[in-house]
Amino acid sequence: MDTLTAATATAAAVSQIGSHFMLAGSTYQHGAALGFGGLDFYVIGRGGVLGDVDADVVSAAFFFFEPTGLRTLWDQGRAVMPPAQAAGEFATCCHGWAEEHVPDDLDVARLGDLAGKVVTEARPAGAAVFSGWRALAVPANPKARAVHQMNALRELRGGLHSAAVMASGLTPMQAVSLKSPGMAPLYGWPELAEVDGLAATWDGAEANTNRAIAHAYEGLNETERAEFVELAGALHAAAAG
Question: How far is CA 50 from CA 7, 70, 135, in A?
């Protein structure tokens, strides 16, 4: 299996496995116990790996979010705790979700090893949040480690996807309206953009994202790529179920 085939085959797993802990009620219960109000924990927890920066830096990295609302959430979060500390708490939620939800019969130790090789091989260019997440300590627990590394790949793909979407000519608001219209309020967009005729443009951006991330799979040989596709797909199916 070549690198592009592996990148394409794991696109859904890489994109969605990390999203489960980010959307979990347990994450926001933990945030509330720390003093956060809701989405401010997501914004500073996910973006905290960037450091104590201006909100525009976070908007640049998050890309799909409406910048004014993101600034409000970032500043609210900074009033609760420093960004680096919030990032650690957010990672704790990732690890806790993994220990609670990853099936016992999945070879997560091997998945963590393979995902870790992809993470190590990846270039940081264009993926600031990935670079920050990769610098965090990797947990020893096999379930937590596997999801931690899969979330690193989610951030890698997310950064590269943002660049591909921008290069395609789509705006962030158009991209959200086209791909995830039900999530538009979460991203801070009060209404949807007109997207008729733009589906092919989105498909092109997806294909270019696969090409952009394929280099990271050079850290695996052909057999390992096939194994990674199988294990990542199994975890994706289990998490979705």
Answer: 26, 15, 11
